[in-house]
Structure formats: C-alpha cells, structure tokens
Amino acid sequence: MLLRLSDGRTVESVVLPKNAVCVSTQVGCAVGCAFCMTGRGGLTRQLGSAEIVAQVAAAREINPAIRKVDFMGMGEPAHNLRAVMEAVQFLGTYGDFGHKSLMISSSGSRRLFQHLMALPRQAVKPALALSLHSTRDELRSALMPHADKMTVRDLVAAAEAYSRMARTPVQYEWVLLQGVNDGVQEADGLIALLAGRSAMVNVIPVNEVSGLPFKRPPKAACLGFVRRLREAGIVSTIRQSAAQDVLGGCGQLRSRFIEGAAGSAARRALDISA
Ligand code: SF4
C-alpha cells in the first residue's frame, strides 16, 4: 500500500502473507543503507504514533485477520522511539495483538537497548529483529553508514540481554548481496557469532534497486548460505521479498510515485490523514 499522510507525504506499508503487515515508522530514513531506496533520500519527518497505528487499520481493511505487525518498513524505529513505543504499547494493549507478534526491526542503538531494558514488568515487550548484514564492523559501517557505531559483538550482546528479559529469540536480518556478504567467510563469521545463542537468522535476498550496484545472488547461492548456517545448528530461513510485483516495500513504490512514474498501484494511494 502507498498511504498518504495529512501533509501529503506518503509512506509504504506491505500486507504480508500469514496475516501480517509491515509498517513504516518515518518518512524517509537517516541510516542511509547503501542497498535501500528509502535510505537514499535521507529523513523527511517522523511519523506520529497515530500514523503508525493507522497503517495497521488500513491493512485490516484489506485483511481483517491481521494479527502480526512488523515495524520494518520505511524508517529506523530507534530514531523515532517515542512514537514507535507508543504504537507498540497501544496495539499490544488494545489492538488484539500478542506481544511477540509486534516486532521492531532496527539497526540497533544504545538508546534503543536502554529503553527496552528499562521497560516495566507489565509493559508490552515487543520482539526484536536486528539488522546485521555483516559480522565485520568495517563492512557493516560501509553498508549502513549512519547506524549507531556499536560493534557487531556489542550489538549481539545487547540484543541477547533483551531477548532473555523478553523471553523471545532475536531475529537477525541479513540482506544477501551478491559478492558482498554471501560468501563462506561471512557465513562462518555468523556461525561463530551466534553459536549457542537464542537466535534465528532471516536471510533476505536483496530487492534490486535501479541505479544501485547490488545484485540478488542466484537461488543456489542463497540456499547454500542458509544450508551452511543450518548445518552448524543456526536456525535460519530465506525470507521472500514481498511486493516485488509493484516494486514496493523498500521505498521503491513511493519513489516512483514521487517521480511521477508510478503505475496503477501507486495511483490508488490511500488517504489515512483522518
Ligand atoms: S534499510 Fe531500513 S534502516 Fe536502512 S536506510 Fe532503509 S529504511 Fe533505513
């Protein structure tokens, strides 16, 4: 879905299989991931908590059975923490969502971990997905130039501490980029990093973006990467990239809309300003 806000700006949400929706938390994003269309334009503005919850309501118009919300669309939830956590607490308290069915996806930051670890006992404790993409600090910094400068080891240790408190495994997100982070060295680095931890790895073959140099690895390479993790005892799956039929989900649909080249899907942008 492409959704129009009260000031005319737009964000993407993706209605996913298995009764889930992926929502945006910001218009644009300041993290600047090298493979992401949203990251190219920088941050425009924060979304309010009502604008985040409205995306869920709009998705339930399409699928009333939606019971899972991934805060994984446009934006870095850790950079809009107050509104994101308001939405999490609201949906988990009044929205008929199990706490573990609300998942924040973040590149990680000290502020985020401090906030999560300080949640009171009765508060909704969302599941956490940590965008890793490399076990090497230099490569991760190059891929995510404006992410918090925590080391990979510190990120994983902080995520693990929250996982124990919230009693839910951490999901590690790994956008697979051909020739960049799809090799044996990275797979083995991940195995060494996560061995013995309560974790699962979601491998996401990249959504190729016109004008960016990153390629989606062939299917056999994706399967080989995951097989290597699994053989070492790391729970891992390949995530299908949703919404490729409308070039959506990574800011691409919105980008085409802004550039005036959108197709029929974007012309049906829903107005959620009310
Ligand atoms: S992948 Fe996520 S964190 Fe990175 S620039 Fe895109 S929206 Fe921001």
Overview of the molecule:
The two termini are 17 Å apart. The chain has 10 helices and 13 strands. Helices cover 35% and strands 19% of the residues. Strands 3-4-7-8-9-10-11-12 form an 8-stranded mixed sheet. The chain has a 3-stranded mixed sheet with strand order 2-1-13, with no helix packed on it. With 274 residues, it is an alpha/beta fold. The longest helix has 15 residues, at 152-166. The model is unreliable at 261-267 (pLDDT under 50). α2 crosses α3, α4 (110-117) packs parallel to α6 (152-166) and α7 (184-194) runs parallel beside α8. It binds iron/sulfur cluster. The site of iron/sulfur cluster has 11 residues, from α1.
Features:
single chain; alpha/beta; 274 residues; 3-stranded mixed beta sheet; binds iron/sulfur cluster; 8-stranded mixed beta sheet
Topology order in helix (H) and strand (E) letters: EEEEEHEHEHEHEHHEHEHEHHE
Residue fraction in strands: 15-25%
**Tally of helical segments:** 10
| Number of beta strands | 13
| Low-pLDDT residue intervals, each spanning 5 or more residues | 261-267
Bound molecules: iron/sulfur cluster
